[in-house]
Amino acid sequence: MCGIFGVVGTKDNASKLVFAGLKDIEYRGYDSWGISFFTDNRFKTLKKIGFLPKSLNLVSSTLSIGHTRWATHGGVTDENAHPHMDCTNKLTLVHNGIFENYLELKNTLKNHKFKSQTDTEVIIHLIEEQLKSQPLAEAVATVFNKLQGLNAVVVSDGKDIVACKIGSPLVVGRTKNGFIIASDPNAILQHTSELIFLEDGQQVILNSSLELFDLKTSAEIKPQFTKVKWEYAGENLKDFPHFMLKEIYEQPQVLYNQIQNLENIENIAQEIKKAFGTYFIGCGSAGYACILGEYLFSQITKKHVNFALGSEFNYTEHFLTDKSLLIAISQSGETIDIVEPVSSAMKKGVKVVALTNTLGSTLYRMSDIKMMLQAGPEKAVASTKALLAMIANILLLSFAVAGKLKEGVDVIEKSVKEIESILQKKDLIQKLAIKIHKVRHIYVLGRGLSYPVALESALKIKEVSYIHAEGLAGGELKHGPIALIEKGTPVIVYVPDDETKGAILANAMEVKARGAYIIGVAAENNQLYDYFFQVSDCRASSVLPNIVFAQFLGYFLATKLGYNPDKPRNLAKSVTVK
Ligand code: F6R
Question: Are 258 and 412 in contact (CB under 8 A)?
Answer without folding.
Answer: yes
